[in-house]
Amino acid sequence: xxxxxxxxxxxxxxxxxxxxxxxxxxxxxxxxxxxxxxxxxxxxxxxxxxxxxxxxxxxxxxxxxxxxxxxxxxxxxxxxxxxxxxxxxxxxxxxxxxxxxxxxxxxxxxxxxxxxxxxxxxxxxxxxxxxxxxxxxxxxxxxxxxxxxxxxxxxxxxxxxxxxxxxxxxxxxxxxxxxxxxxxxxxxxxxxxxxxxxxxxxxxxxxxxxxxxxxxxxxxxxxxxxxxxxxxxxxxxxxxxxxxxxxxxxxxxxxxxxxxxxxxxxxxxxxx
Amino acid sequence: xxxxxxxxxxxxxxxxxxxxxxxxxxxxxxxxxxxxxxxxxxxxxxxxxxxxxxxxxxxxxxxxxxxxxxxxxxxxxxxxxxxxxxxxxxxxxxxxxxxxxxxxxxxxxxxxxxxxxxxxxxxxxxxxxxxxxxxxxxxxxxxxxxxxxxxxxxxxxxxxxxxxxxxxxxxxxxxxxxxxxxxxxxxxxxxxxxxxxxxxxxxxxxxxxxxxxxxxxxxxxxxxxxxxxxxxxxxxxxxxxxxxxxxxxxxxxxxxxxxxxxxxxxxxxxxxxxxxxxxxxxxxxxxxxxxxxxxxxxxxxxxxxxxxxxxxxxxxxx
Lengths: 272, 318
Ligand SMILES: [Zn+2]
Hints:
The complex is a heterodimer. Chain A is an alpha/beta fold. Chain A is about 35% helix and about 20% strand. Chain A has two domains: about 45 residues, no CATH class; about 220 residues, 2-enoyl-CoA Hydratase, Chain A, domain 1 (Alpha-Beta Complex). In chain A, the strands form two sheets. In chain A, strands 3, 5, 6, 7, 8, 9, 10 and 11 form an eight-stranded mixed β-sheet that branches. Chain A has a two-stranded antiparallel ribbon with strand order 1-2. In chain A, helix 4 packs parallel to helix 5. Chain A is globular. Chain B folds into two domains: about 45 residues; about 250 residues, 2-enoyl-CoA Hydratase, Chain A, domain 1. In chain B, strands 1, 2, 3, 4, 5, 6, 7 and 8 form an eight-stranded mixed β-sheet that branches. In chain B, helix 9 links the parallel strand 5 and strand 6. Chains A and B meet through strand 4, helix 4, helix 5, helix 6 and helix 7 of A and helix 7, helix 8, helix 9, helix 10 and helix 14 of B. The site of zinc ion has 8 residues of chain A, from loops.
């Protein structure tokens, strides 16, 4: 079984690209930040890998790692799903947040992890995102969020829908404080996350080929006259339609973020 | 069109028996009033009995009832006057969202709501109240108008979902929903949202980031339609009734969870049996909220709204 965006890991030395199926030498693949050397397919990263690849070395300090989901509705299988999500991702929730340095600037950062219950947003994800924005507003830190999510977490019912409003409200806090917020859409950025804090960033970047959209492809096709275009709900489609500023290959994300911070923050601000 | 749900069957059977008896009495000139009165009393008892034990799925059907009053029905029945305004000023006017200027008691308001259609033609025109980006952009334009002229905002939420089609995706449906919420959070005028029928996920919350959120007794409010949830959870959309239970999408649950502020009771047998009375209940509930909110300073209103949503979420700290 193969899932989109996941490289085969059946051997220590070799991996197979999930898209073009070509075989890659693992050290080369890792050095290329899990981007296929043949077709350029961006394989998914887990939150910790992303942080390592993005921020200045040894600068990440995790915050709010002590928050845990509960099962407020007694929803079928939720407790089990949480356990499996933790096992699959090695994380306690679908987002890792903290502070870090990037290009010499102190930032608030949040990185979602799709391998924890599809990166879905329940109470803990909502709370951690809000704290990230509030910390940014209080401590005057720019906020950078890497999104990877299928949407709201169904298992928390209406409480998860409210996280859309709660995180949106927190964006307005950061805006009032005049601090920049940059979002990076990675594969996939969908539904309740896309329709709340993700789409409200001052600048939106996306990785090539990432799935970015509101509804599932089948639902979208059913609700439409005619066939959706071939690149429907890709980062490139959203870029064409004005919803994303730039498609940025993984190896250029760090330098692009640094440039944006330089542009938005006062020159004397960087702490080196 | 006649719609009878399973749980309503005994009632409709009695109702046809009453009608038959009435007709018979009229035709034959006989006095059957005692029998009729007895059957009517029986109908009343049955209604009470059935409506006291509605399952979440029954409520889902009621919330979607084709005779249920829609946004413009409420506006007509509860406001002294209403002038509808049109267009998002960006090239579109989405009929799935209606809005305008209304007088309600001593208040002048901006009202925005999702509008379903009564017959097939109107349903299609209004896209089953599934708003496109331009619908939410029209709403935002009206929210800003409210802010400029210091008018309180009333939203009437009734949508299965935001429009998920290719066209909406191309024009940024997600961004429109997010911006609509953000615009509501930035307002410094009182805002009240009433979930009147279906509070369908992102499409609903886009208009419900308000100071006070009220819900009609038999309305539903959910992160996902029960059919969609059943397809994921049980791989069977026909298990929607079980999914409705799991999602806890009723007004009682939303109040218990602290996510809404008040349930507006509906007449016996639900809103569609007596739209007039329902509208008056909505009117008095909204007026009461506005009386309370209009005493609060603009900046405090914004802060209260922030805190209202800020505390939503259930988790533990280890
Ligand atoms: Zn490849």
